[in-house]
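The records we work with from here on pair a chain with its fold. Taken together, the tokens spell out the fold as the letters spell out the chain. The record below shows the convention in full.
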Amino acid sequence: MPFKFNRVGLIGKYRDENAGPIIRELGEYLLNHDVDLLLDEETKATASELPWPGMSRSELGSTCDLIIVLGGDGTMLAAARELYMYAVPLVGVHLGRLGFLTDIRRPELFIKVEQILRGHYIAEERFLLHTRIYGPDEVIDAGVALNDVVLHHHNVGRMIEFELSVAESPLSIQRSDGLIVCTPTGSTAYALSSGGPILSPDLDAIALVPICPHTLSSRPIVIGADQEIRIVVRPGPQENAKLSCDGQVVHNLRSNDVVEIHRQSQRLTLLHPQDYNYYRLLREKLHWG
């Protein structure tokens, strides 16, 4: 049976020189199966001994049929934010710690990758969050996140006061260490450690999880993913508040800045091995038995 994907891009863990050997092994395996192979330029710069051409992620997204990400969840999050708009599916190979998004383990690498290349996989769509930050007169910044958008203070131990609205309806005025707005994908990340619920990836839902709220009645809430979230930073000591996307991209906020968050219309496609099961993954990663 011929391969369904004939041009494959490889993205390695950022600045991890130890990823070079496994990328070489996988690359040579793919070439032996007549697959055209490309690297992203950061991977090429980290492992310059690899013989394949490097290119920008935008070029990878526009030319590849499939992109394999070798690293941890952080590597996959960064790749997802830069590639979702190209509608190219991503496959995750686990070289990190927890690995909720990178589910192929190294011992089964070649077997699972070949199965996927031949069209034997489970395709899953995940939605991202899009955020805009408004100053007094204009949009001053924007970003996307696969896991979460987090409002927080630049200093540990300082609270932020902000107004929170959902679907144009005021919900609360909150004093806390911040707020996590997460997708189902991100519900097993920072939001989980802050007492938020785990959301199945097939749900069209968003969780709003306060971080150490000053009022005990401030509890996590789950809303429909079609609802827009609006946050207004109130004047006060939160002058140096920040907004982070997936913990990797940070935006500065000032008093009276407005943050609007909504579901991104274009989704990310992840490909899993045929034996992938989300609830088994939860059981294994969270040590439930």
User: Anything to note?
Assistant: The chain has a mean pLDDT of 92. The first strand starts at residue 7 and ends at 12. Helices lie at 20-32, 41-46, 57-63, 73-83, 109-117, 190-193, 278-285.
